[in-house]
C-alpha cells in the first residue's frame, strides 16, 4: 500500500462527488435508484463511524429529463436551466428519503462560482458549511444551474467539489465516475490502455492524456477531473478518481485499497 493511500485511512473530513453517469441509466436517462440507495447507505454508515461527509452531486438536469420524459438534453441554456430547476427538487426528494431511512439529516446548498471566489461570499459559504457539519448534518451541494450565468458559473461539479474541499479544509476528495480512473491512453479506443495507480505530479503530459467530452448527460470528462485534482493538490488535499459502480467503493478507498487513480497531495 502506498503512503498516499495509507493516509486515506485517517481522513476525517471527506468530500464525495458523484457524476451524472453514476446516478443515471445511460439507456433511459433516468435515475438509477438502486445505486443511489446504496451510495446514500454507504455515506450514512461512514457518517455513523464519525466521518464528516460533504456530498457534491450532479444529476439535476438528468432528473429533470427523466421527469419530463425526454430522451436527451436540450440544446439551449434556458431549457437546461429549466430542467435543472425541475430536476433539483426531484433529486433532493430522493436523497432526503434515502438519508431519512438511514437516520440522517441532509441540507441542500446551491452554489455559484461567486460563492467560491469572492472573499465575502466564500467566507459565508464556509461558515454555513462548517455550521452544518457541526450539527451532524450531511450537506448536499450542487451548482445553482437554474440561475447561474456564464459570468458566475463554475461549469462542472468536478471543479466545484475541489473548490468546496479547499473551502472547508477537507482531507480527501473522492470523485465517483463511470470509468475506473485515469488510463495512460483512451481505454475505449485502446484495449491495451493501462490504469495509472498513483500520480504525484500533474504535468502537461498527464493533462494531455485526458479526453474532452464525458457522457451525453454529464458536463465533465476526465479533463475536468484532473483540473479538480490540481486544485485540491494545491491545497494539500489528495484526490481519488474511481468507478462509482464498484461495491462499497468509498469505504474501500478510505481503507487504502488500490482502486482508481489517486493524485497524492504530497
Word description of this protein:
With 266 residues, the protein is of the alpha/beta class. The protein has one domain (3-263): Carbamate kinase (3-Layer(aba) Sandwich). It has eleven helices and eight strands. Helix 3 crosses helix 5 and helix 4 (60-68) packs across helix 5.
Features of the shown structure:
single chain; 266 residues; alpha/beta; Carbamate kinase; 8-stranded mixed sheet; 11 helices
Fold topology:
Layout: H1 3-7, E1 13-18, H2 20-23, H3 33-48, E2 52-57, H4 60-68, H5 77-101, E3 106-111, H6 114-117, H7 119-134, E4 138-143, H8 157-167, E5 172-177, E6 198-199, H9 204-209, H10 222-234, E7 238-243, H11 249-254, E8 261-263
Parallel strand pairs: 1-2, 1-5, 2-4, 3-4, 5-7, 6-8
Antiparallel strand pairs: 7-8
Helix pairs in contact: 3-5, 4-5, 8-10
Number of helices: 11
Give the low-pLDDT segments.
149-154, 212-220
Tell me which oligomeric state these chains represent: single chain
What is the tally of beta strands? 8
Query: In order across it, which strands form the biggest sheet?
Result: 3-4-2-1-5-7-8-6
State the secondary-structure class: alpha/beta
Helix content estimate: 40-55%
End-to-end Cα distance, whole Å, is 16 Å
CATH homology-level superfamily: Acetylglutamate kinase-like
What is the fold named in CATH at topology level?
Answer: Carbamate kinase
**SSE ordering:** HEHHEHHEHHEHEEHHEHE
Report the mean per-residue pLDDT as an integer: 88
